[in-house]
Amino acid sequence: RGPGFGDLGLSVLRGMQRIFKTKSPVVIYPSSGTGAWEACLSNVLKAGDQILFYETGQFANLWKQMADRLGIETEFLSGDWRHGVDASRIEQRLRRDTGCSIKAVCCVHHETSCGITSDIQAVRESIDSTGHPALLLVDSISGLASVDYEHDLWGVDVTVSGSQKGLMMPPGLGFNALSERAIEVAKKGGSKRSYWDWQDMLNANATGYFPYTPATTLFYGLREAIAMLEEEGLDNVFSRHQRLADSCRAAVRAWELETVCLNPREHSNALTGIMMPDGHDADYLRDVILEHFDMSLGTGLGKIKGKAFRIGHLGDINELTLMGVICGVEMGLGLAGVPHQSGGVEAAMRSLAR
Prior knowledge:
By secondary structure, the chain is an alpha/beta fold. About 45% of the residues lie in helices and about 15% in strands.
């Protein structure tokens, strides 16, 4: 890496602060979002620490499983995979923790497996109302740059994200947006760590460099992705995602199918999860659509595998692209013999025309 690399490094580090809406550091790893999960946990927690997870879907489950394997004592507030985080349940649990044994609350902001968005500001308010010192750790891997996210305003201590969703890039970059409190906790504790150590990163990042080989080529893509988002304007990006999501859900209603997410206030603007009628297999529908139209839909994950499929409408996508997807799904429903009403394409078009 030549002397000019530092300018590229500083450009993407500062740009990601703007995307996360934070004045605190953002650490960038050559990793998937899963690696960024582990970086988050290992810097502020150690084996034997107690943390509270909220079950919103498959990715909340997987993050909890990682913590279990790291020897962290986890507690799961169970959910039905059709609703977001209920902040009042977190508040109730923290009020019972009079000894402040719980070191962190972990939530998924945007549950990719179900198409559910949770109110992270409400979670922060629930923690603050108890006076509990627990850190707030949030996964926004598929939410960042697709729906509004306010790391500082919402009082998040660590936000985890990745490059392959709203940032429109290939997988390969993992992000930790930090708070000053999280940095201080990491300096004094956390697990034994090397590759994931924030402090090594922060020291080198001051000049735009990294303590080990970064994903250099992806940095050029990240710089362009940030420029694209800022050229459109983040508010306009979020409005576009809202408009496309509304049209997709209009199609689902016209088909007389159900979205996985039951609370309209928690609907994702990045993807729509759709439940299959009883007795019909979502993966068979996906196979039919792939075979006939060369179009790949997202599968249901975990306990809704075979019961649901997902339509993504995030990143570099426009109305015409989404209309093609909705048309393919409607034709596929007919070919697969799935009970539904016609008119989803027309309903989506009417939604977009408003």
